[in-house]
Amino acid sequence: MADKNSRNQEQNRKLNIKNYVRIDFKTLQGRISIGFIIIGAFALIMLVSSNRAWKNQIEDGKNLIALNKNSNTLVAEVQQLVDLTTILTFRYVSTEDDFYKNDLERWWADELYPKVDELDSLVREYGDKNVITYTEELKEHLPKIKKTQKEAIDNLNYSILNSDSTIDDILHLTFLRENIQDRLQMAEQEAIQDIQDAERNIPLMLIIEFIIASIISSIIAVFIIRSVLKRINFLKSNIRELSKGNLPDNLEESEDEMNSIIKGINELIFNLKGITRFAEEVGKGDFNTKISVFNNEGHLGQSLADMRNKLQTVAEQDKRRVWFNEGVAKFGDILRKNDSSIEDLSSSLISELVEYTDSIQGSLFIVDKENENDIKIILKGAYAYHRQKFIEKELAPGQGLVGQCYLEKEYIYLSEIPENYVSIRSGLGESSPTHILISPMKLNEEIFGIIELASFQPYEEYHMNFIDKVGESIASTIQGLQVSLETKKLLEESQMKAEQLQAQEEEMRQNAEELEATQEEMERQSKEMGAFNQGVRVSTMVAEFNKEGEILDINNQLQIQTGWSNDEIIGLDRKRLIIYDEDIDWTQTWNKITDSMSLSASGTLIGKSGNEIPIIAHCIPVSDESGNTAKIACIFIKKENFQ
């Protein structure tokens, strides 16, 4: 019984299938079935062939785009590497550091020439004669630039790098690079256009296939097509407009079986209009346009959303790169034009730096290492609220954030500024800055200065990289300027010392002549004085005393008059020999003689036997080799000689 039921069910299924599909020409159903089979086979063949052709075309276009992008990237890298070698040449000429020279050779040998060879291989694979010609000219032009750099290194001469011929070489290199990139860009656009044409042709091919299938099916099942012909023609005309890139108004919906198709077409029209608006905004350079096609789902919706995000990223990166490069070039020009005074250079740099980074305040400190035991960080330039500020400020290493930055040799970034940190206020009542960036001007790990910037807006990483790059250039210039100023100072000191030495030589010559005349006069006076002294010592009485008032020596005449001998009286107190009429303390007497250079007083000499001799004493100081008073010499003249 179960087997019988199973056979009946299988037979019913076969009968049901025959109700829908019959392979014969006797019935309309069979003809329609055969027609649909033929249409299906034909459509399959068309789809497979067109799909394969479309894929091959797109794949070839993508390969060409990838090849162009690689070539474009390589030619840009060649330009950048040439710029890098030029910078290294400047560095070597300015510092004479073999590190830069060796690094320069390495970049040429290991990076630049291999990339040029790789570029040559790619453009030959690409096969464009113009690109190949420009590339060959680029290869022939590079050794000339390298030769110029070597000449600058050998001669240690900046002017070679700044000569008109060198600049022409760089400009010609840029011309070749731009021509190669332009030609590659044109090829890439052509490839993209081919891909887009292929994509646009897909609906057309599908429509053609659909039309062919419709014609065949119409011949086979004309009575079926007549019932829906009007609606099909309506849909067909609108789809054809869409295939041509024209976007019709939304189709009027109906209540028949075609309504779901109309809704789909209306939704497609709506999304294609969104794509059109997006393309127009992108063409204007506005990459921030919001787009929601197919709710950002599916391949097309997600691809367009991803494309917008990537375009935004590329545009922002390009904007930052241009800003960075233009800033480096701008401040390089400022450094070249202001090379006479650190003060003028600092003022010009900080004002331009504040404006270029959209900061509100800025300070530039220079490190003074004239005294290695007392390093100073001196404020040389300040700029705030679009005006130059003249402030005197001096810090020590480790003092404040600037001093801390000097010790750490790394930038300091604050988004929460300590209270009262900013000392410059706006006269218009503006708020204080909310972000601080403090960056060292560092060259070969040596700090030459500190840059301090304040802003209302956060500083991004590319800001910090830019400040670091500019700081390095400023440090290099300051180093050269300091050496130049020190050399100038030493030259001036040398000239001044030479003039002083010449004046001293002239003065010494005159002094020598005067000294010679003085020596002759002194010799004459010495002879006269010797004779005079000898006469005095013979005819007058002379005694010498020390600071304590002790007798040091008496002459022969005094020994005869008093009866004292030198051996007996030396070391005795002065009062054993003389008593002044107005006797005062010997210390006072000593001071008077020393201050006045002489002293005259009346007194009485006391002989050994006690006899008294009234005298007039004349005392003078006697100096030692150092010019200090060593003793007092007194000449005694009898009063009777004055009567």
Residue share in helix:
55-70%
Q: List segments where confidence is low: pLDDT < 50 over at least 5 consecutive residues.
A: 24-29
Count all strands and give the number. 13
Q: What's the alpha carbon Rg, rounded to whole Å? A: 55 Å
Structure classification: alpha+beta
Strand content: 5-15%
Number of helices: 15
Question: Which geometry do the CA atoms define?
Answer: rod-shaped
Along the chain, the helix and strand elements come as HHHHHHHHHHEEEEHEEEHEEHHEHEEE
Distance between the termini: 192 Å
Protein name: GAF domain-containing protein
Pfam families: GAF_2
Transmembrane segments: 28-48, 206-229
Coiled coil: 484-528
Structural overview:
One of its GO terms (biological process) is signal transduction. Residues 266-316 form the HAMP domain. This is GAF domain-containing protein. Residues 484-528 form a coiled coil. The protein is of the alpha+beta class and 643 residues long. Helices cover 65% and strands 13% of the residues. The strands form 2 sheets. Strands 1, 2, 3, 4, 5, 6 and 7 form a 7-stranded antiparallel β-sheet that branches. α3 packs antiparallel against α4, α4 runs antiparallel to α6 and α9 runs parallel beside α12. The radius of gyration is 55 Å and the shape is rod-shaped. The model is unreliable at 24-29 (pLDDT under 50).
